[in-house]
Amino acid sequence: MKKYVAALCALCFVFFLASCSSDKDTRLAVDKDGRTVVERYGQLQIIGTNLCNEAGEPVQLRGMSSHGLHWHGKYANRDVLKWLRDDWNTQLWRAALYLTEGGYITGPVLKFKVIDSVEAAIDLGMYVLIDWHVHRDRDPNVYKAQSLAFFDEMAQKYGSYPNIIYEICNEPNGDDVTWSGSIKPYAEEVIAVIRKHDPNNIIIVGTPTWSQDVDKAAEDPIIGYDNIMYTLHFYAGSHGEELMAKAERAMDAGLALFVTEWGTTLDNGDQFHPDKVMPWLSFMRKHNLSWANWSVNNKGEDSGILKYNKDRNGKGGWVDSDLSPSGLFLRKILKNEIKIK
Ligand code: IDC
User: Fold this and answer.
1) Residue 53 falls within a domain, yes or no?
2) Please, what sign has the CA dihedral across residues 253, 261, 97, 36?
3) Is the distance from the beta carbon of residue 235 to the nearest atom of ligand 1 less than 6 Å?
4) How far is ligand 1, taken at its centre, from the CA of residue 155, in Å?
């Protein structure tokens, strides 16, 4: 009898280990055999409401967003991405190209910060979000001509790499910037341009009210194209169950969501709220929502992962004393050192 109990215990233990490791394996930047996430997952695709790998299995990508490339673009380089991949277990990098506030519209050379990001990600086997960071400019139609030219060029150059994910308008906002009146028509034009060169890679469309009104997109989704997703953003200190419920309604209605930006703080980027983050991490795990956290910077705001003035040259190689409380927390989350229920 004792023997059977022991054998049963051993078997349970093996199953337990197997379930732990398979859960972790799916969220590794590089697996134990040295295979990168892009080597393992390959061409991403949408099946139903899920982001899936080439084999058709649902996946959850997790990673970091840059801050505005015009302010903190020094981190958009191979050294930092490699550090994030190997020390932080980051599968994804988001290159945030602001348009206004000194961004791309007045500084078109910033395109090369995106290019640096994309080429580093390809080299390192990471996925990369090309974020057209509509923000203070509110309506993506304001700089539509520039967007069409930019995505035409990006898709032509990089559309054949499975690493690329297009995020065509970060956060449309303002009561006059509606889904059906402004955002959807803009998206249809940009998608058509990208699809001329790139038939497969995922394209993510921002939603009204700083990418919170995913329900509006669910009422009138984009049709005629595959592999389209919609943006959901939250800041844990400011947004909670109400937004989760809205996201669930959108998913129930058939929308595939990607959390291309979220913060551990209030939506002004300050006040770290780890307690309020945990329910969101569980929510994203439950629904297999991929995410990028805001952001890699050392300006001293609480949502930044570095302390004020640390790593001034953008080299990576950070030690704990370089990291903010949010940075220490995020690193543990990405390394699977904090259990998400
Ligand atoms: C914030 C930065 C802050 C910067 C500001 C400029 O954290 O340092 O001064 O932009 O406009 C968003 C935006 C993102 C914001 C972030 C925090 O996508 O650009 O970054 N946020 O306010 N949406 C909700 C919050």
Assistant:
1) yes
2) negative
3) yes
4) 27
Using a 6 Å cutoff on CB, does residue 101 contact ligand 1? Answer: yes
Asked whether 135 lines ligand 1 (CB < 6 A), one says yes
Expressed as residue numbers, the domain containing 149 is 36-334
Instruction: State how many domains the chain has.
Output: 1
pLDDT of the residue at 15: 46
Answer whether residue 230 is part of any domain. Answer: yes
Tell how far the Cα of 287 is from the centroid of ligand 1, in angstroms.
26
**Cβ of 269 below 6 Å from ligand 1:** yes
Within a domain: 323: yes
Please state the pTM of the whole predicted model.
Answer: 0.94
**Does 119 participate in catalysis according to the annotation?**
no
Instruction: Tell which wins on pLDDT, 20 or 62.
Output: 62
Question: What is the CA angle 88-36-157, rounded to 5?
Answer: 105
Summarize pLDDT for 284-336 with one digit per residue, the tens: 999 999 999 999 999 999 999 999 999 999 999 999 999 999 999 999 999 99
In this structure, the residue with its CA closest to atom 22 of ligand 1 is 268
Q: Which CATH number fits the domain that encloses residue 300?
A: 3.20.20.80
21 part of a folded domain: no
Whether 54 sits among the annotated catalytic residues: the reply is: no
Angle at CA of residue 63, ends 93 and 148, nearest 5°: 40
Going from the Cα of 269 to the center of ligand 1, the distance in angstroms, rounded, reads 6
Measured from the CB, is residue 270 less than 6 Å from ligand 1? no
Of the candidates 54, 101, 119, 171, the residue annotated as catalytic is 171
